[in-house]
Amino acid sequence: MKEQILEAIERFDTIVIHRHVRPDPDAYGSQCGLAEVLKASYPKKEIFVVGKGEESLAHLYNMDVVTDEVYQDALVIVCDTANQERICDERYKLGSVLIKIDHHPNEDPYGDLLWVDTTASSVSEMIYEFYLYGKTKGLVLTQEGARLIYAGIVGDTGRFLFPSTNTRTFKYASELVEFGFDLPTLYNGLYTTKLNVAHLSGYILQSFTLSDQGVASVFLTKDVLQKFDVTPTDASQLVGALGHIEGIITWVFFVEEEDQIRVRLRSKGPTINIVAAKYRGGGHPLAAGASIYSWEEAKQVIHDLEELCTPK
Ligand SMILES: [Mn+2]
Fold first, then answer.
1. Distance of CA 140 from the midpoint of ligand 1 (Å)
2. How many Å lie between the centroid of ligand 1 and the Cα of residue 28?
3. Separation of 158 CA from ligand 1 center, angstroms?
4. In terms of C-beta distances under 8 Å and separation of at least 24 residues, what long-range contacts does 38-45 make, across chains too?
5. Residues 108 and 133: beta-carbon distance below 8 Å
6. Cα of 223 to ligand 1 centre, how many Å?
7. How far is the CA of 51 from the centre of ligand 1 (A)?
8. C-alpha 226 – ligand 1 centre gap (Å)
9. How much distance in Å is there from the Cα of 29 to the middle of ligand 1?
10. How many angstroms does the Cα of residue 227 sit away from the middle of ligand 1?
11. 96 CA → ligand 1 middle, Å
């Protein structure tokens, strides 16, 4: 598949790279890391990264603003996005050829060429692998490209903590660090916590409930978000905060938004993307998300998780 992707890249003069809505470091890292590889390797091609910019990731890269015309005879590559509804900027459909590069379960196999590797810790890791494959065929990785790919790996592995971290991840990470980008500045950009978010994490640690089955739940209503002056996006980013607490097997955040309640699910073993799928969502076996429309439904989600955690 890497060979076919490289062939497609070589064929096109214009390449537009997309990623998912509500981007995380891996979305930016894979999208912009790939852009940097392609810019350095093919200086004559026009390479663009599109999608709504995320302020907290502006230290990584800036998005391009492109007209619809750019998509004419363009190759479109979508990184880190399992299903089409989650692709940021609908114009991904306007290109000539569409490529999907992802590490989530391939439930929506969109695109003309698909490279999906669910064993990869991150799509950024896959982009590095793509560079390794193409190294002898003209692909070039710059220090800036290495920084972006490394940021994506660090983000999606929770700083090499999540079970998706494997020997390949560490090997690639050490090779990337060799490029000599400024590590402390990168970590500061990724992990400096805003004061209001720090206060909210205190609230979360105080207020979560834990059932006998090992299911922890946190309710972040509009009132709570307002009290701490945080956005639903800020709140969702704290979902890892319960990962190391004794007795918790699966946990769920309910974050109230304008028109829905976002469900953030995490697990230390039981496969929770099944539960996510039941509530209009999806994701990885141990990290998934969904959307519900009432607090009544939230109770059902907790009930389903409890079922899942009950030894059969
Ligand atoms: Mn990812």
1. 23
2. 9
3. 11
4. 38/9, 40/140, 40/141, 40/142, 40/145, 41/134, 41/138, 41/139, 41/140, 42/9, 42/10, 44/13, 45/12, 45/13, 45/14, 45/15
5. no
6. 31
7. 16
8. 29
9. 9
10. 31
11. 25
How do the pLDDT tens digits run along the chain, 312 residues long? 999 999 999 999 999 999 999 899 999 999 999 999 999 999 999 999 999 999 889 999 999 999 999 999 999 999 999 999 999 999 999 999 999 999 998 989 999 999 999 999 999 999 999 999 999 999 999 999 999 999 999 999 999 998 889 999 999 999 999 999 999 999 999 998 889 999 999 999 999 999 999 999 999 999 999 999 999 888 888 998 998 999 999 999 999 999 999 999 999 999 999 999 999 998 889 999 999 999 999 999 999 999 999 987
**Residue 184 alpha carbon to ligand 1 centre in Å:** 22
Identify residues whose C-beta is under 5 A from ligand 1, the ion. 26, 80, 122, 156
- Which residue in this structure is represented by tokens 């400024």? 182
Q: Could you tell me the strand order of the sheet in which 74-79 lies?
A: 46-49, 14-18, 74-79, 97-102, 113-116
**Span from the CA of 91 to the centroid of ligand 1 (angstroms):** 21
CA of 129 to the centre of ligand 1 (A): 15
In the block, which residue shows the tokens 């290109």? Answer: 95
Angle of helix 25-41 relative to helix 123-134, nearest 10 degrees? 20
CA 193 to centroid of ligand 1, rounded, Å: 21
DSSP β-bridge partners for residue 101: 79, 115
